[in-house]
Amino acid sequence: MHIALLSRNRNLYSTRRLIEAAEARGHTARVVDTLRCYMSIAAHHPSIHYKGAEIERFDAVIPRIGASITFYGCAVLRQFEMMGTYVVNDSVAITRSRDKLRSLQLLSRKGLGLPITGFAHSPDDIPDLITMVKGAPLVIKLLEGTQGIGVVLAETNQAAESVVQAFMGMKANIMVQEYIKEARGADIRCFVIGDKVVATMKRQAAEGEFRSNLHRGGTASVIRITPEERSTAIRAAKAMGLQVAGVDLLRANHGPVIMEVNSSPGLQGIETATGKDIAGMIIEHIEKNATATRKVPPKPKG
Predict the structure, then answer these.
(1) Which tens digit of pLDDT belongs to each residue from 267-276?
(2) Number of C-alpha atoms within 13 angstroms, CB side, residue 129?
(3) What pTM was estimated for this model as a whole?
(4) CATH for 2-94, among 3.30.450.40, 3.90.1300.10, 3.40.50.20, 3.90.1150.10?
(5) Cβ–Cβ under 8 Å, residues 100 and 143
(6) Which residues are documented as binding site for Mn(2+)?
(7) What residue numbers does the annotated binding site for Mg(2+) cover?
(8) What fold does the segment set 96-112+182-263 form as a domain?
(9) Residues contributing to the annotated binding site
(10) Rounded CA separation 34/71 (Å)
(11) Binding annotation for ATP
């Protein structure tokens, strides 16, 4: 198969590993810079051009779209979908997962465990918003934040009011969530491919830090998860419509709660922690699911 990786940086670990895994299984892989793609949107012959020429046909596309270019990246991905190309995660699923508030609402609709979350617009509603999530300590998150950026732990109600007021004053979209104390600064990353959790790791926050992101100094180790946690991760990925996802869970006293569903989960941390060939598993998933005959829209006559 001829596989495209929508990525802005071919030197990223995840991009390199996916290329290696594809080539190891006899496929060809090409890195395509998402922002260098431009589109011809036509009824009978939708096409994508890349660096001055119409792009070649691909059998499958692996989107590795950064959060900062979600809008344009999903537009490019939709164009591949219109051309009949198999995509690992489709544009609708990525858009759902990138909208933190919408994703939590979809997960709530499915009855999945979540931390109590509040969202408001008016500063007048801040005191009740804080009460809704059981008061301080609580977590305040920018809806557009990634990798732990724009996430604040407020230790007191007064501090929480000040931070929320500051964000609102900047016209930033934020949500507040209850702080799961019993998690003790640790979360579980479940890597889901298709309908299976293929790897799991525990991420522990650094000393004095509550965010467990590896980019913020957190450490990773292998962990065994419960059947309930496994089911929760799979159901969360399905709720988003994602075939490949990183589902982040916290162990609360009342069971697993979902923090986030990531549509472009990094491979370095989980492959290093578990020793598993996650990239190879993704390529194997494509082999099983990409249609042999691509549905190419007919060209106009004449």
Answers:
(1) 999 999 999 9
(2) 23
(3) 0.88
(4) 3.40.50.20
(5) yes
(6) 248, 260, 262
(7) 248, 260, 262
(8) D-amino Acid Aminotransferase; Chain A, domain 1 (3.30.470)
(9) 141, 178-179, 187, 211-213, 248, 260, 262
(10) 11
(11) 141, 178-179, 187, 211-213
